[in-house]
Write a structure and sequence with these properties.
The complex is a heterodimer of chains A (about 250) and B (about 60). Chain A is α/β, with parallel strands linked by helices. Chain A is globular. Chain B has a single domain, classed as Ubiquitin-like (UB roll). In chain B, about 10% of the residues lie in helices and about 35% in strands. The mean pLDDT of chain B is about 95. The chains are: A alpha/beta (about 250), B mainly beta (about 60). The interface between A and B is medium-sized, with 34 and 23 residues. Chain B: It holds the Pfam family ThiS. Chain B: This is Sulfur carrier protein ThiS. Chain B: It comes from Paracoccus simplex. Chain B: InterPro entries: Beta-grasp_dom_sf (IPR012675), Mopterin_synth/thiamin_S_b (IPR016155), Thi_S (IPR010035), ThiS/MoaD-like (IPR003749).
Chain lengths: ~250, ~60
């Protein structure tokens, strides 16, 4: 099971808490997924926050607050500070967004915010691109986990750049790596795990499915399958056929 | 004093942030605060006095991905 900053979590499936048809369905989806971590956010208190906090506590799993929607270092750092006090955790899923159409991270600001937060004792989970140099800079800044996107948040496109994600895995064999965002189908999640990733973080694919509880279970099974497959050392793909049934001993009938 | 609370103009008695939270019914709520864009820890609220023009953000746990 994945270990983040010295804490082993119970499952490689990290699940978001947004966009479910109801709080009850959200809680049921978490149980079906046996998710290891729940991601949450901070928003202006309009009266729902207190009930939601109770619901999250009842899930009984570690909480990873995010800085979703932040576009600057200052916003992200302030949000992280508020999240640390509210959720009583040094963990922060650091998002600093550059472009609203793609929700592409501002990787320059991300590195700067990661450095400031790491120096302040935070344990940063950066939502980043799969760029090797950016990921290297994030590690230099103090991050001990990397969370490259599979595809833009909520797009459901799966892994846009399997080559880049595989390259990142090979480049940082000892760093916990999480594919965060872009997952649409269980096969996408399985693919991430087959590449040797430590975990998958998803939300929309489950919450917006017609049956979120069934999809949560499907994701959990796919992630387990992908993880087992990676550990089983899969065969290399090849261009030409290789008969699996032995040719020796075949009767001559022609 | 006239402040901006979560983006809306409010006229509150105060004088401290702790008093302001009680005034809007969040005295005992699990919330985090930022004053003029900077984090204001819960422990500092009773000793932090509001003044005209301040911008106070009061946030709570919410759904997130």
């Amino acid at each position: 099971m994945p270990v983040f900053y010295g804490t082993e979590v119970a499952s490689p499936l990290m699940l978001g808490t947004a966009q479910y048809p109801s709080p009850a369905i959200m809680a049921e989806a978490f149980r079906a997924a046996r998710a290891g971590i729940a991601t949450v956010s901070l928003r202006r208190e309009g009266g729902e926050g207190q009930d939601f906090h109770r619901l999250i506590k009842e899930l009984g799993i570690p909480v990873l607050p995010n800085t979703a929607g932040c576009h600057s270092v200052r916003e992200a750092v302030t949000t992280a500070q508020m999240a640390r006090e509210l959720f009583e955790t040094p963990w922060i899923k650091l998002e600093v967004i550059r472009d609203d159409d793609t929700l592409c991270p501002d990787v320059i600001a991300l590195v700067e915010a990661a450095r400031l937060l790491s120096e302040d004792g935070f344990q940063v989970f950066p939502y980043c691109t799969e760029d090797l140099s950016v990921c290297g800079r994030l590690l230099d800044a103090g991050c001990q986990v990397l969370m490259p996107w599979g595809a833009p948040i909520g797009s459901g496109r799966g892994l846009n750049n399997p080559y880049g994600l595989r390259s990142l895995r090979a480049h940082f064999p000892d760093v916990p790596l999480v594919v965060d965002a872009g997952i649409g189908l269980p096969s996408h999640a399985a693919q991430a795990m087959e590449l040797g990733y430590d975990a998958v973080l998803l939300n929309t694919a489950v919450a917006k499915a017609g049956d979120p509880v069934a999809m949560a279970r499907a994701m959990a099974l796919a992630i387990e399958a992908g993880q087992l497959a990676h550990g089983a050392n899969p065969i290399e793909a090849r261009d030409m056929a290789a008969p699996s049934t032995p040719l020796f001993g075949m009767a001559v009938l022609a | 004093m006239k402040i901006t609370l979560n983006g809306a103009a409010r006229d509150l008695t105060g004088p401290t942030v702790q008093d302001a939270l009680a005034e809007i019914g969040l005295g005992a709520a699990k919330v985090a605060t930022a004053l003029n864009g900077a984090f204001l820890p819960a422990a500092a609220r009773p000793a932090t006095t509001l003044k005209d023009g301040d911008a106070l953000e009061v946030v709570a746990p919410m759904q997130g991905g």
